[in-house]
Amino acid sequence: MEIEVDILEFKVPLENNKTIFIWDIQPIFSEAYIYEYLWKVFSAFGALYLLKVCPNAKVAEPGFYAMVKFYSSVHASNAQKSIDRKCLFQSSPVKVRLSSKQNLAFYSSKPLSLSKCLDLANHYLGFGGWSTHIITFKDLSKCVDAGCQQETVEGVLLKYGCITELSFPHHGVSCRGVGVAEDVLDDDLDPEERVRKRGTLMKRAKDNGVMNAFEKVLLLVLGNGKVAIEIKTDPDEVLPEENSEGVIQVNDISWKQFERASDEDAEDDFPWDLTEHFPQ
C-alpha cells in the first residue's frame, strides 16, 4: 500500500500549485471580517504562509478578491476543490482557482522569516517537537580575516556570529545553522543606547542562526497525518565540533547573505501581482 508523502521546506513557497485565488467576494462585510473568515476556512486544510484580501479595482464592481498561499501543493489543491462555488459567508458562491501565472521563475526562493519558521514547525511538530540552543557565540567586530574594519566613517562597526543547534527530540535528528548580524554604532550614542543596540545585534545573530538551521530541514508529511524529518546536508559546510571552545569559522565572504528581512517585511517581499486571466 503506497502512502502519499508531501515534502515541505522552510522556504517562501512560490510555486503556482501552492497559490489559490478567490474572487466574486461581495462587499457586505468588512475587509477584516473577510480576512478572519477566510483564514479560519483555509487554515483547516493545512498551514498557510500568506493570506491577502484586497478591494476590487475601481473599474470593477464593488467587492473583494483574495490570495491564499499554502506551504503544501496538496493542501492548496484540496482547498480549491472543496471551497470553489461555495457561498461561505455570502448569498452567492465564490470562485476559487489555482494560480496560472508562469513568471514566478524570475523570483528566487527565499528562506522563511523566524516567525514563519516557528509557525510552520509548531503546526506540524507541536510546541514541544523541537528545540534550539547556542553552540558558540563570537564577536567578529575586530576580525581582520573577515574583512572587517573596527572604525568606519559613521562610527564603530559591530558584528556578531552565532552557531545554533536545532534539535527534534521525537525524531532523533538535529542540525546546525550559522547566523551573523552587523551594524554601525554612531559615535554620539549614549552608553545605554549602545548597550541596547549590542543586545539587539546579538539576538539577531542568534535568530539568523536558527533560520539558517531551519533551511536544512525537510518535513515529510505523510498521507496518514504523521510527520517525518530529513536533514539536508552540505558537504562543503564546516562547523565546529561539540568540544570546540568558542571557535566560529570566519571566511573572507560577505556576511550579508545571512541577513534576513524583518518579519514585518516578509510578506511584502512576496510578488503580489494579480494580472491574471481567471477562467470563468
Automatic annotation (TrEMBL):
Residues 261-280 are annotated as: Disordered. GO terms for cellular component: cytoplasm; nucleolus. InterPro entries: DSRM_RDM1, Nucleotide-bd_a/b_plait_sf, RBD_domain_sf, RDM1, RDM1_RRM, RRM_dom. It is found in: Cytoplasm; Nucleus, Nucleolus. Its main location: cytoplasm. It holds the Pfam family DSRM_RDM1. Keywords: Cytoplasm, DNA-binding, Nucleus, RNA-binding. Residues 18-101 form the RRM domain. Homodimer. PANTHER family: RAD52 MOTIF-CONTAINING PROTEIN 1 (PTHR31164). This is RAD52 motif-containing protein 1. It comes from Danionella cerebrum. The lineage of its organism: Eukaryota, Metazoa, Chordata, Craniata, Vertebrata.
